[in-house]
């Protein structure tokens, strides 16, 4: 028969649950003496709006596949500088850039689960940072692929300056 496992000797006889020794005072494993519990941040509640009938994610997927012009009449993919993007920031003509791609978000406004107002926050500008902070799990390229109008490029430099 094998000998019994050795017992851990703990200075002062202190031990935690299950025979695990408690770290000595001053050890980096213990929380600071002023800490009584782990601080928790209040959970942010995701604000959603009630979408009108016919504007669910499934309805959006069907609209994308229908062949409808969701690009707003753009016949070819364009190179779009920020100054041009900025001109498209109205509800009836809204473009936004995500990850270097510019999309006509006008047809998607009524389908956005957070409401039109939330999506209009990025109309006419690069919404990559805001999108990533609120929708890290969403693939914008797949969701808006039928709305692609071009690629975001730097402002052209004026050679006369």
UniProtKB/TrEMBL annotation:
Organism from which the protein derives: Heterobasidion irregulare (strain TC 32-1)
GO molecular function: cytochrome-b5 reductase activity, acting on NAD(P)H; heme binding; metal ion binding
The name this protein goes by in its record: Cytochrome b5 heme-binding domain-containing protein
Disordered: annotated span: 1-45
Alphabetical list of PROSITE patterns matching this protein: CYTOCHROME_B5_1, CYTOCHROME_B5_2
GO cellular component: cytoplasm
Keyword terms of this UniProt record: Heme, Iron, Metal-binding
Cytochrome b5 heme-binding domain: residues covered: 77-153
């Amino acid at each position: 028969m094998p000998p019994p496992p050795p017992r851990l000797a703990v200075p002062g006889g202190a031990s935690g649950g299950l025979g695990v020794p408690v770290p000595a005072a001053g050890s980096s494993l213990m929380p600071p003496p002023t800490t009584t519990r782990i601080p928790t941040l209040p959970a942010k509640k995701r604000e959603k709006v009630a979408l009108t009938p016919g504007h669910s994610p499934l309805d959006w997927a069907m609209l994308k596949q229908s062949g409808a012009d969701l690009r707003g009449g753009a016949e070819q993919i364009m190179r779009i500088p920020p100054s041009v993007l900025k001109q498209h920031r109205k509800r009836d003509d809204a473009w936004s850039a995500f990850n270097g791609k510019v999309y006509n978000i006008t047809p998607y406004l009524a389908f956005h689960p957070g409401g039109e107002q939330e999506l209009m926050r990025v109309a006419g500008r690069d919404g990559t940072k805001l999108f990533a902070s609120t929708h890290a799990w969403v693939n914008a390229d797949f969701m808006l692929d039928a709305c692609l109008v071009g690629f975001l490029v730097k402002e052209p430099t004026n050679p006369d300056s």
